[in-house]
Structure formats: C-alpha cells, structure tokens
Give the backbone structure.
Amino acid sequence: MQKSDCRSKTLAFFGNAIADWSGVLLTVLATKGLFEIGSGESKRPPHRIFTPVRKFLEEHSLTIFLLVTGVVWVAVFVKMDPQSRWGQVVGNIVSEWTQVLGLVWLTKRFFARGSKEGSRSS
C-alpha cells in the first residue's frame, strides 16, 4: 500500500468518526439539557404557567433544536462538494442529525409493553 493510500484511508476513517461522535455527543448532551413531551428520559421542565406558545416551545425544545441545527448542517452541506472529504463528513453529520431526530420521534410515538413508558401511556 502506498503512503498516499494509507493517508486517504486514515482521513476517511477520522472523517467518519467525527460524524459518528458528533451524533453521540448530540444525543447525550441534547437529551440531558432539552425536553421533549412524551419522552420518559427527557429532563422535566419546572412546572410554571406559560403562554401556549412558550409551553409548546418548551415541550418540544429537543425537536426544535434538532430541526434548526439540522437545517444549518443541510445548508452547509449544500454549499460543499459532496465528493470532497469534508463534504462527506458534513453529509455524514446530516445523516446523524436525521437519525437522532427520527429516534426522538419514534420513541415518542411507540412504547414497548412492560416498559416504564408503556405503562405511563396506558
């Protein structure tokens, strides 16, 4: 294997790792600091009286955060060459954000029988 082939593979590995770890970091930090109604793992907001708009924003802060930052990542990706190394990294980050948003929505809607969330929904 030539030195340039090894360097390309190493850079591809680390580019993919950046995207994967950003998704993990997003999952851990965003779910600890933000709330999503219907999620048993979300941090509970303090009970205060809110206007309907403020209540909606607080109850869906995780989804809103993921949508807004996801749009930013998509905008960055659109400006890049998808075949470049960083274009591939940003494309992978967009994929990670989409997966996390999908997980949030799926876990809000579907409950396993016998789980803490399943008993809460019945």
